[in-house]
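writing this on my phone so excuse typos. first protein, seq and then structure
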Amino acid sequence: MKKTISSISAVVTLATLFMLPMEAGAKEMTGEEVTFGRKLGNCLACHMIPGGNLPGNIGPPLLAMKARFPDKATLRAQIW
């Protein structure tokens, strides 16, 4: 069940990112803008993220991700 919710969340986030308008000269967004923005990734709704206010508790905390998943392939396998 958790993996299904995580998968759905990841797909929705990626779909949202791909639907964003890409204009010539548009400012590239930071990861914080995507994860904390309610209209974008809104990762903070489900996850505890350093620096975030009112984090959710549905998803796992996104703390020390580089230490927990030094290999990006392992992280990707965990999510997908």
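second protein below, same order as before
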Amino acid sequence: MNSAAHAAVIREHVDEILSSRTFARSGRLRAFLDYVVECALAGKAGQLKGYTIGIDVFGRPVGFDAGSDPIVRVQAGKLRKLLEQYYVAEGARAPLRIRIPLGSYAPEIAWEGRALSQAGMSLAAAASPAPEPAPPIPLLARRRRNVSRGNWRPAPISSHLALFTLLPMLLLAPAPQSGLAITSIANARIYVEKARAAMDLSGRIPVVSIEHCWPGTGVCRQLADAIQKAVGYYRTVQLGDSRESSDADPLAYRIRIEAQGRGETMYARLIHVQSGLTVHAEQFRAADLNEATISYEAFTFAGRILSANGRIYLHAQRLGATSPTMRCLQQADRRREPGSGCLHLPLIQASTAPEAAERLSRDDHLHPARAL
């Protein structure tokens, strides 16, 4: 088996673990396992330290002390126990074994009783591409391929015509037993609704919610308010409520603004709600912020993450969660045409970074000195 095939087998095994009943109730541990295995396959096992895991997986702020904050060590212990439970029950017949050794966060993977390294295949080598690798499979698509379908389920509905013709066909189809007909109709309705919901996703854009500082006073609150106002200028995202963010939505993001210590330092972090991963983080010093600089810093931060080719859109693209609307907005941004070609899409009137900058520059609320 070549290196690309090894990596594919390992990833498929990880998918089976993440979709198992043993891991069903622990989103943090699923993200932890997926993260360390992907880093190892990328040849970055040596970089798996408590500090980087704390920031990337558990959303800790940049600069957090891994020595005094035991979150990574505690979760690593839980992950070891959960993996043991999985291999005792659901994964008893699995050809692979993944373990996190004590004193390390780099995973060890054994194949049919032999460690990969003993068989002449390291994790880094397993990730090396073949001479002509197949196109990469997006993370979300890779996860979804393991979802099994019963033989009775219809194929995915790919057009409006199929959507509106499927239900009448099933309603009018004769059935030898009334109970079977009722069951078929109910199943058809379920799948029609799912197909309609899937089609509605084609016009979706990311939803961004704001978590304000606590306590909500002083410069930190002013910075949070300025960032929220800046977010409102971008039509590339939708401003949402953090209390209503769905953990199952791959396009849900959260901006968390928090003060550290006695408020001398503040952090603004962009978090992917579904995985809990920190996508982007910036640090601000309270001594450097005043009425004139807060609006500038807020707009600069918003521009980096909210533009059509910013952090959120690039992250969604890596996940394979980009909608047709988002792709249209990205193309318009590259052409420096502020969403003009995307106006036909539902509820979208896009603003790229230059357009948002112009609108912000005219806002006296973000430039109080000019309003005098």
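The mean pLDDT is 72. thats all i got for now
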